[in-house]
Here is the input.
Amino acid sequence: DSSAVAMAEDLHALGFVFLGVLLTSLADISPAMNALKYKLPPTDEDSLQRLLGEIFEGDLDEFRDYCMEEDAWEKVVELLDEEDGAGWD
Here is the structure.
């Protein structure tokens, strides 16, 4: 029914919002990064959906590797890796 589809779409979107909040609020930007005027990659819902859907074709392992390459997100990835990667499920 249409309400179930709408709820599923809302939960899907909420997952991207939550991921964006984690990547932004838990980012660890060092003083050296600040000195270089480091800027985080986009973490808005649309950008994250494009990354996961179009670039990594839904492969969370590849997306995790991408996130791990960003020095500022290393602690976020470590958090999501806890409990055998429960944060990525």
Remarks:
- Residues 2-25 form the longest helix (24 residues).
- The chain has a mean pLDDT of 91.
- The chain has five helices and no strands.
- The helical segments are 2-25, 31-35, 45-55, 60-69, 74-85.
